[in-house]
Amino acid sequence: MRKQLFSTLIIMFALSGLTLSGTAQARMKCWTNSDGIKECGNKIPPEYAQKEHHELGEGGLVREKTERAKSDEELAEARRLEKEQAEQEKIDADKKKQDQILLATFSNVSDIERARDDRVTALEATIKLTQARNDKIQIDLDKRIQTAADAERAGKAPAEDLLNDIESLKRQTSNNNTFIEGKRAEQEEIKKAHEIDITRFKRLKGIE
Predict the structure, then answer these.
(1) Pair 137, 50 in one domain
(2) Which of 25, 55, 77, 79 is most buried per CB count within 10 Å?
(3) Contact yes or no for 196/188 (Cβ under 8 A)
(4) Could you give the number of structural domains in the chain?
(5) CA distances from 22 to 31, 40, 105 (A)
(6) Pick from 66, 93, 114: which residue ends a domain?
(7) pTM tops 0.70
(8) What is the pLDDT along the chain (208 residues), one digit of tens a residue?
């Protein structure tokens, strides 16, 4: 208690003396020592230079406050939060831009449904064309397989060209089936995407 009172008296004395000199006032700084006691002087001790301190102006009023230096962990956390904020701001900006495009592209829900159906129908035409091509390949493949089987039943080895054709037709059939599966999946993605657009369009327009 005596120590704290003594420090307070020193501070009061220092402040009263500083009223005689504007230059000295500008240099007056206060800090909190390791015992939690506030001290003031013209120069901050090195061990407190990175701590929070104040610079006093006329009449002992705080003119400038210097926050304590942040630790490496605090700086890293601040950078992380800043990065997260920047990423979120980008997400929000992208979403706002998408909303603007959605409202500029479609006038009503029917327009969105029509665009969805057009894309799905176009893919369906591609699927049917590929399936028709596959059906023809399968007919050709079945004939060649039958020819190879007839040769084996006759005790002869199927011609190498025939076997190569069979393998080639099988690969074509497999590739076409994979292509069709991909287009079917694309149709489902289109339906989901447009459903999201419809829901968001209704929200933006206030449609129940």
Answers:
(1) no
(2) 25
(3) no
(4) 2
(5) 20, 16, 68
(6) 66
(7) no
(8) 444 444 444 445 444 544 444 444 446 778 788 777 877 877 778 877 777 766 766 555 555 666 666 777 877 888 899 999 999 999 999 999 999 999 999 999 999 999 999 999 999 999 999 999 999 999 999 999 999 999 999 999 999 999 999 999 999 999 999 999 999 999 999 999 999 999 999 999 998 7
